[in-house]
Amino acid sequence: LWMARHFWKGSLSYIGFDGKGQQARDVLHVRDLFRLVQWQISHLSLQKGQIFNVGGGLEQTISLAELTDVCSQITGNTISISKTAENRPGDIPIYVTDNTKITEFSAWRPEITVPTLLSEVYEWFKQGEAMLKPILS
Q: Are the beta carbons of 70 and 117 closer than 8 angstroms?
């Protein structure tokens, strides 16, 4: 959504937490997840019902304000962002997946950075603009 709004020059909102866009989430590229699933399939006997948390982790965590800056740099577009200070029920300021167990177990860790992921999304939008615009703009 964030890249789509920048690409098609839409608007966005920072909602909650004083409207500063400081809430943060970790981001995981599907290729990083695919690498892990391939490893898991080829090592099924080692896992024996183990449960793992999997996400971008601390290294791939970004706030909405940082995400705005990266999307603006990639697209060259600056968009309108409204601010709502009040939190909504269930809002959390930060979520970062703890990958410690899966990394210790398999040596897997996310490799694709948030800026690289966003650049790839931007290129995908450019390639499929006519088809994607009615859906995402």
A: no
